[in-house]
Amino acid sequence: MPHEALFNPVQLGAIALPNRIVMAPLTRCRADADHVPTDIMADYYAQRAGAGLIIAEATMAIEGNSAFGGREPGLYSAAQVAGWKKVTDAVHAKGGRILAQIWHGGRACHSLLNNGAQPVAPSPLRIENDETHTPQGKKPYEVPRELRDDELPGIVAGFARAAENAKAAGFDGVEVHGANGYLLDEFLRDGSNRRTGPYGGPIAHRARLLLEVVDAVIGVWGKDRVGVRISPLNSYNFMQDSDPVALTRHVAAQLDRRGIAFLDLMRGDFFGVQKGDVVTPAREAFKGALLVGMGFTPAEAEQAVQSGTAAAIVFGHHFISNPDLPARVRAGVPLVEPDSKTFYSPGPRGYTDYPLLGAA
Q1: Of 45, 76, 182, 199, which residue is the catalytic one?
Q2: What is the model's pTM?
């Protein structure tokens, strides 16, 4: 059987995976205008239930100033919980496992998408190398408002409420989104966090908010159903850090002390700007299940699992266009490439219309 190692079961805390091919959280903007998951989202995720684990797309933990695309889902209202329950029921009916990824957009948000609310961040530094989509067309990112220290317990509480709502919605656990230039990642990296005091300066201070959120979510779910995603090298959203290896080592060690179900590590940079090996320090510092993603072929994924570098491999864009990705990997057939023009467009095109293996 091709890539046999990817089809050995593995345990992530309390979550048993039948294979080691994990679906990455992929923003697709198919929720409604109130950030409620739609029926087509249930179809989409159910099609991909053959993954060892689905990590659902970035989902707003807090209402008010955390929307960045307009149609991303939330987990702060009863209607959103009900919408997600349809999704989790559909995935479970197909024998799958699905986690919620809870998230705050931070400075990547825009006031035109948040009823005029100014975006917030650790420091008043805006994203300068790109523009964002708004109801009035593409606009420059705004200078965010620096969060006060006394506001941060409210952020933590918001994530805890989202974790409780994820449980009510029938998820199998949660992943805390600490990656890709959104709020928790903005606190982690010194390119976006220039504050002083208990949440700025040395790495231990910059990691404080992420770890407080993780502790709060563990308080809801227990440590064995909580994962964390980080991206120490990724320059997406105008991000950088002066020492990503040391940052990785500290965060991984702190998460290891907490005994969480897994650490989800993005190993590279979408744009190839920042380079380095963050997998080795993560593997050395975190003794639990390490998930690694970004740019893996099935052959490389198998090698990483066989060597013990990773417990499972996270696949992103190929899960968009190959709903039965594990079956295709098992069969050793070529993978379909996705149409990037439909990543964020409404409706089924490029979303639920990719054919299954063997379909006409």
Answers
A1: 182
A2: 0.97
